[in-house]
Amino acid sequence: MHGNGHNGTVRIGFYICHCGHNIASIVDVKAVSEYIKSLSGVVISCEYKYMCSDPGQELIQKDIKEHSLNRIIVASCSPLLHEHTFRTAVEKGGLNPYYFQMVNIREDVSWVHTDMKAATEKAKDLSRAAVQRVFHHKSLETKHVKIHPDVLIVGGGIAGIHAALTLANAGKKVYLIERNPTIGGHMAMFDKTFPTLDCAACILTPKMSQVKNHPNIILWTYSEVAKVDGYVGNYKISIRRKPRYVNEELCVGCMDCIEKCVYKEGKTPDEFNVGLSKRKPIYIPFPQATPQIVVIDRETCIEFKSGRCKKTCVEACDRKAIDFKQKEEIKEIEVGTIILTTGYQTFDASRVPFYGYGKYPNVYTSLEVERLVNASGPTGGELILRDGRHPKTVGIIHCVGSRDKNTNRWCSRTCCMYSLKLAHLLKEHTDAEVYNFYIDIRAAGKSYEEFYDKLLDENVHFIRGRVAEVSDWAVRPSEEGKLIIRAEDTLIGIVRRVPVDMVVLAVGMEPQADSQDVRRMFNISCSTEGFFLERHPKLAPVDTFTDGIFIAGACQGPKDIPDSVAQAGAAAAQALILIDSGEIELEPNTAYVVQNECSGCRTCLTICPFTAISRDEAKQKAFINEALCKGCGTCVAACPSGAIKQNLFEDEMIFSEIDGLLKMESPACC
Amino acid sequence: MQLPTPTSVHSEEESHKIEKMKRVVRRIKFESELDLNFGERVADKAYGQKLLSCIQCGTCSATCPLAHYMDYTPRKIIAMTREGFKEEVLNSLTIWLCASCYSCYVQCPRQIHITDVMYTLKREAIQMGFHPKRLPIPILAQEFYKRVLKDGRNTESWLLVSLYLRTNPFIMLREAILGLKLFLRGRLTIGREHVKRRDQLHTILEHKKGEAPL
Question: Are A165 and A347 in contact (CB under 8 A)?
């Protein structure tokens, strides 16, 4: 065997970690250590309180030198946490880092078992498997790949905008992709923002126009990612640019065409005003839309439906920007890193039938109310209900769809605060009596509690109780013509019926409807709720399990604007680390073809997801490009001749590991 | 000027009532007076540990069509059960007023089986003899249980008689005509209905003795 040090003999050092009480309270570490010492090839076997500490690492380095060790095994936590630490320690001790093997006896043993005796036996089995495995380890070279400096950001809400500007200001080229005709996301729809009550548009639109005008940002709205190929540092992305039927180079956003459209009045529910107003087939979502370019909706435009429109819009356009023949375009780009800021959708209030959304016209969702109180909203900021009345009493129902095992279990974090804000705005606009029905007020943020105090001083009613029902069934003359909210005032301990003119449902935040498709396309994970999963909930909150892909904003979990912006900045910084270091170390877990055994059948060529395999036609053999191989192992399993092997996962290693688990002596180790 | 005395404003009876209301009563609960395992015991019976996950939102009370008449709202019953206020819970009217309509059960955001919790509490109250003496609901349950235990079946006429005897015999006189009409249409029988081999039933029940709920 090559690389086994002097005399070709294997000399193993085994170290078992207490991890404080994490491991030692369930696993008898001393017994494991003594057992491993008795196995052949093991020179040193010892236990230590914290192997990951500096003295722990130094212990390994000292033993390598003093006892000429050439294999190191550490039984401790997950390789995800400390494999890198120990490999580095082994390397410092003068040994190739791939002679190291880690055994997970914390996540796999002590944290999941309660029976000490059985847990100790399992730890022994796993350790013995590692001892048999390391006999076959080889010296390997670490791979490096170059990082392409461009960044793709998917989603143009506040998180995407902030991340794009951060990276662009650092001199990096950014592609910002947004599927709607304008950037701005949900924040552009809000009236004011808590707790400072500054207007959302006033703080957002300057950033939107910065994005538009930044020389380092390529902004593609009305576009979607169609395909993702490649790997960290070298992603190849296909972007589908949906046709606007308006030439983006020529349109200046004068809106003459919209005025001249054959539709005198809008007929289609306006997406930006959440259906509270109507728009024409040719439109701009809102006055500050970025880019300020008109879009034609194919579904409702007469020209597309019948082909017999007078096309007054075309006549109206001086710059001849309208082009009904525009086709979908696919753009291919190369980037090194990706930031996903795809945001959230609001909970569909009609899923809770007891609250009468869609049944009673004066029941609104919070997003609708944001538009209703906004100066550029459907009523110009005047609070007129769907039946034309002005509300004298308003009930705001918190936690709609949230904190409920029947719908969404999580707390959406933002609803308490935006409900307080809406209570303030509604009082300001109408001087109405406002009732908040809440389960708990969660005002944990800078200046949030103070905002709650302010609302209490404004004499807004706070009733602690989840609403059971909204109905129009009056049992008293004073309830006639009103919506009656029924809830227990839990602090007083009595059921109350509160008649109101308007009900506001504080709907929660949930993952986008297509978040699973996006997750698959980018090869990242989702938590059980469907939000994108971070690599570590505390220590790697914007990383994903796929290198080079980062997440920020509400696609990772419900979040308010300050948190989204903070996360977007963090994701941009993570991308900058990769870009500025220029290259990244990769595991040498690539596959290789044993040329003598390859029959040239081409099986591996078609199945490789990274197109890393080519065929040498002269020799009639397959050949794997190490730079492209990601070590997925698909070809290894598929090769009918067993001619493909994979570093770190060679058959002998796996089989001897299994033998070790089954208490069978592996022939190779003796 | 002479100020009016309280008696000049209220009648004697009213002022007596007010005095009674105003009486200072010491209300405090010492931890030693609680049955600290009570909540867990009830939760074990009433479908798992869901009872313990109550967030006290009050949806149950607000959906309950009978909450207006209860001495403690259903939410309070859950809180008190969880905290071990056994005597108060088992003596409450709430558990007897629950009509098992399951509205709370449907809407509870923690999916607590509140109706089943109420059943568990009712059983416990009967066993401990904690219910109001002439309240028909527990007595009906007890009499029904006794009859089925004895005969394997329920005879409605006998059940009614024993219920009225133990609650208010005068109602029997008031309902006599209705009873007669029911009898004439064959809805009530005089003879005792029972299963065929009662001895076998009794053997089974004897064997299962001591395995009573809670």
Answer: no
Place of tokens 């207006």: B68
- How do residues A641-660 score in pLDDT, each as one tens digit? 999 999 999 999 999 999 99
Long-range contact set of residues A579-584: C-beta below 8 Å, sequence gap at least 24: A579/A147, A579/A149, A579/A151, A579/A172, A579/A336, A579/A337, A581/A147, A582/A146, A582/A147, A583/A144, A583/A145, A583/A146, A583/A147, A583/A233, A584/A144, A584/A145, A584/A147, A584/A232, A584/A233, A584/A547, A584/A548
Average pLDDT along chain A: 94
Residue B129: pLDDT over 90:
no
Check CB contact under 8 Å for A493 and B76. Answer: yes
Domain containing residue B147:
133-214
Closest of A502, A497, A536, A482 to residue A427, by C-alpha: A502
Neighbouring CB atoms inside 10 A of B92's CB total 22
Q: What pLDDT shows up at residue B23?
A: 81
Q: Which of B63, B75, B107 has the CB atom closest to A490's CB atom?
A: B75
Within this chain, do residues B126 and B169 fall inside the same structural domain, yes or no? no
Class of domain A151-242+330-343+512-581: alpha beta
Relative to beta strand A268-269, strand A278-279 is: antiparallel
The residues near A107 (Cβ < 8 Å, ≥ 6 apart) are A77, A78
> A1 pLDDT exceeds 60?
no
Which residues of chain B are within 8 Å of residue A495 when distances are taken between CB atoms? 61-62, 64, 67-68, 73
CATH label, A591-646, candidates 3.30.70.20, 1.10.10.10, 3.20.20.100, 3.60.20.10 = 3.30.70.20
Q: Does the pLDDT of residue A408 top 70, yes or no?
A: yes
Phi, psi of B41 (to 5 degrees): -65, -45
The whole-number average pLDDT for the span A146-160 is: 97
b/e map of A48-87 (b: 16 or more CB within 10 Å)?
Answer: beebbeeebbebbbebbeeeebbbbbbbbbebebbbebbb
Residues B125 and B137 in one domain: no
**B91 occurs within a structural domain:** yes
Per-residue pLDDT reduced to its tens digit, A439-466: 999 999 999 999 999 999 999 999 999 9
Residue A670 clears pLDDT 80, i.e. is over it: no
Contact criterion met (CB < 8 Å) for A465 and B62: yes
CB A248 within 8 A of CB A296: no
B207 within a domain of the structure (yes/no)? yes
d(CA A417, CA A561) in angstroms, rounded, equals: 12
Select the residue of B55, B73, B109 nearest A488 (Cβ to Cβ). B73
Q: Kindly state the average pLDDT of the residues B83-90.
A: 94
Interface test with B, best of A400, A435, A488 (most B CBs within 10 A): A488
A457 token code pair: 């001083």
Q: Is the peptide bond before A291 cis (omega within 30 degrees of 0)?
A: yes
Using one digit for the tens of pLDDT, what is the confidence trace for A329-366?
999 999 999 999 999 999 999 999 999 999 999 999 99
Task: Give the nearest partner residue to B57 out of A466, A469, A494, using CB atoms.
Answer: A466
Instruction: Tokens for B55, please give them.
Output: 């967030």
What is the interface size between A and B, counted as CB pairs within 8 Å?
60
Compute the nearest-CA separation of B139 from chain A (Å). Answer: 29
**DSSP state letter for B69:** G
Contacts of residue A486 in chain B, CB cutoff 8 Å? 62-63
Mean pLDDT of A469-484: 95
pLDDT digits (tens, 9 = 90+) for B132-162: 788 888 888 889 988 998 899 999 889 999 9
Say which residue the tokens 């990242």 belong to.
A524
Domains A244-326 and A591-646 share a fold: yes
